[in-house]
């Protein structure tokens, strides 16, 4: 989630350092290798598209200070989505001392297509055959020496998550070479390459590679072209491309790709041998199959949801929170803190600020550490397990048809599920979607109807105390809202939906160490990012309370909160702090309910409003960054009244029908 | 198969080796094909026809064809008359189907040259059989449309074609990709980047709730629409 180290990346970009760029197909283990080389943790998961931004990290490799750059996975260096463009651009703009191409050994054919493109670019590189263990267990053997001779570069085998082969990798990083392998295209294409090449300025990658990108119709190169070349030359390029294209009925991009694929097959035929073997883990194979089966898929999904609910909602939000909140904080820490503060600071104002009703210790720390932390901690563990198992992309297969209603396809389930972790990060992940329309739709739905882990945990904790019907009503309302808003928004927002083409990684047994490291990284992120906001929010509440603004806000919002939503006046507090962080708002409701101030209908209504409510500040800024301020403001302007409207309608319906929860 | 009546000029060619055919007739065929192709590209003019014609005596043949009612020339304007239209259509159909046959099924390098011979000698019955065998392909390997025949209209599951859309496979079946007729260029680019190209072996895992296909160690979930555009031959 927020644990991508890229935000502070700029600082690390020291031009004097040796530069290593990691490149490869999606889900081949680039981030795992990055973590290994730099000791810096970036999210490693078992699904394509975990990394959507470039991440920089420093390390001392072979006694040389080096900047290592992790990139989003690509299937071709002619990009088709925003995350792929990021990778191509880094090759274009950063001169690498070494490019390390990471390939999935069992899927070398697709890796070689990238190899051929790197060769065309003329960059110095080495090839890392990763996941060698999985290939072996499937009976796939690659003749590494032969491949190395054919390509004219160093080739090493590794299993990054087990550190195996890293020494050899480090050694070969010292000997990067340009590959000697070359793909010849047909005469007309070669002719056009010659014509175009002479027009390019000196660049980090070869003119031949640039020419092929242009011929393949790479729209995303436009920015670079305009920055580096004159308009009339660009027009010439386009003319040559169109003349050439008119000779073929298939797109040039396809023809070029097909040629590369053929060359990859030729190479593969010389280095690949297949052996009968134990077929690897058959249980994983069948589970993977059943998890997207039209009949068994659904019960499996329900079991997964139930287990997560038990783990996070009951064990985390129930047992763990009780222990921390009632036990550790209620019995010991808070009473001690009150005593100590009263003894050390004989100033009533400061006493109240630290340990009063809106005290920084009694409220901010209690909320963030005793209530939200155990819940998000348990959620992070459950979520990491799901991520690493490879189940999430299979979910996309199950929901593809439903997502079509919302103008999306199954691929959009990835950012949506990530939203259950953190909406802010998920908004960034919408980059894996291909069209602008899809990115806007998912950003809106994330902000509106997908509760983040912290919020979800608190909600689960609250709702677990009610009947199952309450959960069904809350969840049903959310899903209905999502479908309806998605359906309507898809009609309004212009643009085309894209094809559903999603790669499914094999199901894997999650690695305990990765789960632990990932959970710790996320908890650290939570503590660093969320706790200060909790403290700030509490401070604002405290000041508002002191100057009487809180009472004023409550009076102002009473018509909506009390009359329309049927909630107690104090619920306004929760909504106010919900602006800062939605989980903080939910935690406020949690406390109200604990004090017995909310009846079941009030709980369901307030939770629904809180879930639909405007995104937290961090998410809002991410929306503005990714989609533009105007779009972000439009979304908030829609979400705010809409959330209260739904809550009001719900209150009215439940009261009128006298639903017992 | 309604097309039992052979065209006068081509009568009796079927079954004979290409050498027996009168060269004039082949030249006529060639000219008619050129006209058809130019018309597809939207550049059909009298001069353009002569320019595209690499044979000797094109102008004379053109005049002959015009005289015997195959086509009509008026200044730069040139058009196929109904009987010329029919003959050209069938020639182009035979040519492009042959191309598919040699290119996809036999994987011959000189597919173009072979197709040029075949187009003159295939009888309507054989043409339709080839068409059926190939699964009534809509395009030739170079992407140009193949004029549809009567068999294509009758088609669908009646005769088991050798080449069928991936969508028609049963779950668990394996096949080789023969050709792809994508709805859009970007779709083709994306698929090919994942290894979905002619020649690849593909296995259909399941059809519901979404189509899942496997190529080597790559498993991909795709829309049904896409699998309708991938034509495969069972292996």
Detailed description of the structure:
The complex is a heterodimer of chains A (661) and B (235). By secondary structure, chain A is α/β, with parallel strands linked by helices. Chain A is 64% helix and 7% strand. In chain A, strands 2-3-1-4-5-7 form a six-stranded mixed sheet, with helices on both faces. The model of chain A is unreliable at 1-14 (pLDDT under 50). Chain B folds into two domains: 1-161, Winged helix-like DNA-binding domain superfamily/Winged helix DNA-binding domain (Arc Repressor Mutant, subunit A); 163-234, Ferrous iron transport protein A (FeoA) (SH3 type barrels). Chain B has nine helices and eight strands. In chain B, strand 5 and strand 6 form a beta hairpin. Chain B starts with 22 loop residues before the first helix and ends with a strand. The chains are: A alpha/beta (661), B alpha+beta (235). Strand 9 of chain A pairs antiparallel with strand 7 (218-222) of chain B.
Write the layout of secondary structure elements.
The complex is a heterodimer of chains A (661) and B (235).
Chain A (H helix, E strand, L loop, with lengths): L8 H4 L5 E7 L5 H9 L16 E7 L2 E7 L11 H12 L4 E7 L3 H14 L3 E6 L1 H6 L2 E3 L1 H8 L3 E3 L8 H8 L13 H11 L9 H9 L6 H7 L2 H15 L6 H20 E3 L7 H9 L6 H48 L3 H8 L4 H30 L1 H15 L7 H9 L1 H7 L6 H14 L3 H11 L4 H25 L8 E4 L7 H35 L2 H16 L6 H8 L3 H13 L5 H13 L4 H11 L1 H28 L5
Parallel strand pairs in A: 1-3, 1-4, 4-5, 5-7
Antiparallel strand pairs in A: 2-3, 6-8
Chain B lengths: L22 H19 L4 H7 L5 H10 L3 E4 L2 E4 L1 H24 L5 H8 L5 H10 L16 H5 L8 E3 L8 E7 L4 H9 L7 E6 L4 E5 L2 E5 L1 H5 L1 E5 L1
Antiparallel strand pairs in B: 1-2, 3-8, 4-5, 4-8, 5-6, 6-7
């Amino acid at each position: 989630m927020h644990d991508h180290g890229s935000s502070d990346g700029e600082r690390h970009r020291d031009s004097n350092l040796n530069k290593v760029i990691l490149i490869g197909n999606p889900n081949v283990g680039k981030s795992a290798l990055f973590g290994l080389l730099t000791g810096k943790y970036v999210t490693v998961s078992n699904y394509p598209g975990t990394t959507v931004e470039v991440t920089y990290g420093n390390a001392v490799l072979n006694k040389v200070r080096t900047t290592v750059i992790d990139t989003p996975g690509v299937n071709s260096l002619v990009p088709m989505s925003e995350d792929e463009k990021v990778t191509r651009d880094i090759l274009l703009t950063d001169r690498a001392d070494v490019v390390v191409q990471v390939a999935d050994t069992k899927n070398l054919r697709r890796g070689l297509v990238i190899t051929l493109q790197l060769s065309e670019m003329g960059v110095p590189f080495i090839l890392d055959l990763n996941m060698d263990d999985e290939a072996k267990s499937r009976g796939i053997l690659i003749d590494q020496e032969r491949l190395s001779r054919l390509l004219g570069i160093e080739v090493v085998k590794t299993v990054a998550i087990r550190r195996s082969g890293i020494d050899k990798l480090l050694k070969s990083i010292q000997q990067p070479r340009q590959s000697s392998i070359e793909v010849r295209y047909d005469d007309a294409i070669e002719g056009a390459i010659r014509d175009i090449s002479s027009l390019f300025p000196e660049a980090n990658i070869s003119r031949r590679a640039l020419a092929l990108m242009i011929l393949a119709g790479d729209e995303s190169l436009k920015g670079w072209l305009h920055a580096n070349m004159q308009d009339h030359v660009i027009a010439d390029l386009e003319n040559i491309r169109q003349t050439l294209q008119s000779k073929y009925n298939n797109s040039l991009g396809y023809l070029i790709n097909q040629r590369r694929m053929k060359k990859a097959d030729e190479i593969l035929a010389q280095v690949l041998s297949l052996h009968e073997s134990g077929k690897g883990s058959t249980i994983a194979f069948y589970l993977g199959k059943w998890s997207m089966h039209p009949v068994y898929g659904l019960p499996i999904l329900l079991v997964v949801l139930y287990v997560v609910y038990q783990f996070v909602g009951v064990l985390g939000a129930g047992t763990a929170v009780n222990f921390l909140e009632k036990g550790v904080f209620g019995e010991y820490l808070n009473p001690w803190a009150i005593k100590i503060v009263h003894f050390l600071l004989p100033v009533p104002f400061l006493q109240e600020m630290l340990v009063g009703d809106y005290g920084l210790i009694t409220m901010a720390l209690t909320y963030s550490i005793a209530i939200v932390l155990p819940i998000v901690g348990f959620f992070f563990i459950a979520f990491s397990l799901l991520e690493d198992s490879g189940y999430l992309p299979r979910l996309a297969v199950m929901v593809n048809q439903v997502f079509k209603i919302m103008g999306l396809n199954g691929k959009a389930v990835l950012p949506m599920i990530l939203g259950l972790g953190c909406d802010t990060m998920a908004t960034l992940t919408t980059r894996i979607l291909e069209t602008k329309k899809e990115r806007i739709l998912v950003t809106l739905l994330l902000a509106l109807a997908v509760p983040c882990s912290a919020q979800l945990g608190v909600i689960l904790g609250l709702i677990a105390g009610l009947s199952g019907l309450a959960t069904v009503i809350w969840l049903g309302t959310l899903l209905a809202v999502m479908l309806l808003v998605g359906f309507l928004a898809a009609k309004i927002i212009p643009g085309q939906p894209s094809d559903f083409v999603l790669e499914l990684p094999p199901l894997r047994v999650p690695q305990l160490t990765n789960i632990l490291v990932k959970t710790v990284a996320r908890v650290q992120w939570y503590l660093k990012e969320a706790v200060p906001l909790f403290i700030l929010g509490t401070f604002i509440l405290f000041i508002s309370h002191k100057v009487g603004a809180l009472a004023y806000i409550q009076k102002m919002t009473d018509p909506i909160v009390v009359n329309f939503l049927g909630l107690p006046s104090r619920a306004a507090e929760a909504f106010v702090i919900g602006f800062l962080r939605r989980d903080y708002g939910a935690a406020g409701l949690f406390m109200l309910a604990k004090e017995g101030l909310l009846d079941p209908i009030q709980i369901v209504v307030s939770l629904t409003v809180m879930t639909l409510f405007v995104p937290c500040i961090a998410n809002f800024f991410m929306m503005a960054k990714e989609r533009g301020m105007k779009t972000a403001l439009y979304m908030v302007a829609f979400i705010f009244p809409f959330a209260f409207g739904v809550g009001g309608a719900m209150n009215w319906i439940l009261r009128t029908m006298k639903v017992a929860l | 198969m309604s097309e039992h009546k052979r065209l006068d000029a081509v009568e009796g060619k079927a079954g004979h080796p290409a050498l027996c055919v009168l060269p004039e007739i082949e030249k006529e065929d060639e000219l008619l094909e050129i006209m058809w192709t130019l018309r597809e590209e939207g550049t059909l003019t009298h001069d353009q026809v002569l320019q595209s014609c690499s044979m000797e005596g094109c102008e004379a043949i053109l005049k002959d064809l015009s005289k015997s009612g195959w086509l009509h020339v008026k200044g730069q304007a040139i058009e196929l008359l109904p009987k010329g239209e029919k003959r050209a259509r069938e020639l182009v159909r035979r040519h492009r189907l042959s191309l598919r046959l040699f290119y996809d099924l036999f994987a011959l390098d000189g597919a173009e040259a072979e197709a040029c011979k075949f187009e003159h000698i295939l009888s309507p019955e054989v043409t339709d059989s080839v068409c059926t065998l190939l699964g009534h392909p809509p395009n030739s390997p170079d992407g140009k449309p193949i004029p549809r025949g009567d068999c294509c209209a009758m088609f669908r599951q009646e005769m088991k074609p050798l080449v069928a859309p991936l969508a028609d496979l049963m779950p668990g079946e394996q096949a080789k990709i023969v050709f792809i007729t994508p709805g859009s260029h970007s779709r083709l680019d994306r698929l090919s980047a994942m290894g979905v190209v002619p020649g690849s072996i593909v296995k259909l895992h399941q059809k519901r709730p979404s189509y899942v296909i496997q190529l080597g160690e790559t498993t991909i979930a795709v829309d049904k629409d896409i699998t309708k555009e991938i034509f495969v031959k069972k292996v």
